[in-house]
Task: structure prediction
Amino acid sequence: MAVEDSMKHQVSIEMALDAYSKGELVRMLSNLMKAYVIDGTSPLKPDVGRVHVPTHLRELDFPSLIETLKFHLNLSDLEKFNVIDGQVYVTLGDREYALHGPVATTNNTSTAPPAPTDPTSAAVPSPSPTATPSPRPRQNRGGGVFGGGSPAPQENLPLMPETKEASDAPPTEADDRFRMLELD
Amino acid sequence: MESVCDSLHTVRDACNGNRLEQCLVTRADLSVLSFEEYVLDRVKFQSVSLGGVNFLKSMLYSVSFNGAQLRETNFTTSQLRGSNFFNSELIEAAFVGATVESGRFFDSRMTNVNFGGAHLLNSRFSGVDAYGMNCERAMLMHCSFTDPRMDNAQLSNASFKHAVLIDCDLQHANLYAADLRNALLVKVDLRGANLAATKLDGARFIDVAFNRSELSEAQRSALAAGGH
Result:
């Protein structure tokens, strides 16, 4: 148990015992001393209430803890967490959220396929970086204590519906077809 | 040599001063007697009626009550060491300020029994119905509450207000609507216990095993305010 926890418990006990009279406290203390000091009574369940957390885990911050867990445990739910630059992201459905940020992320433009050269697809909407900003940095992710754990951000990006850029050109037949695809 | 008393008259004869020892009392109605400030040593009460009898300030050493009627019996400020209650009726019995050490309460009806300010030490409660049991300002140390048949000790509506519970086993206990306000719990096993509607304002939990997720938001706040 950490020293801080132990001190906190002691303060809590003192505050609770403050409500008892001297007579009550004397009786309590004498019974406690008789049972556990003189008679040497063993606790019914010595480990009850104790959460055994390895010491090295206690010293980690949350992003490092996630990285460590991902590195050591093969749990699919942990794959929903990503750590980049010391920030934890969680994937819910097809969106990814920063644990300490309200903005949902979408696909990064750098991962988008190159624009088609086919003239019929010239009007196909392209992702707009300004319309769908991603708060998530793409590189220099924070390393875990074991130097690994989460996959590269690019490997784990969700497929996001992309926002269509406004265009002055009149809609073509191809536009209508792609619109239907988007709805599907 | 154990003597046998089977009537009110023979019990009175067996009492030497304020002392009754090493005897078996069976099938007698003793409800008119008083054992106030008595010393009872190695006495077995079997199928006797002791309803409402006064054991005030008495000392009971290795006394057993088997199939005894103890409704509203008064054990206030008495000292019970190594005493057993088997298959007895203790409804509304009073143990106010009493010290119960190494007590065994088995298969007994203890509805609304009053342990206010009592010290229960190294005692076992097994298969008892302790609905509404009052343990206000009591100290429970090294005690266990179990029910081999029902799998959960019946403690609903019990009061542990301002009580101190140390090293107690309340695993799977039914503490529905129990009052734990301002109680101090240290090393208590509450795993699987029913804590629905349990009042926890000001309660302090130290090394207590329980399922936090089963608490309501209000209960969690109450615990946090209590310093947990």
Q: What stands out?
A: The longest helix of chain B spans residues 217-225. The interface with chain A takes residues 99, 117, 119, 121-122, 137, 139, 141-142, 144, 162, 164, 166-169, 182, 184, 186-189, 204-209, 226-228 of chain B (CB under 8 Å).
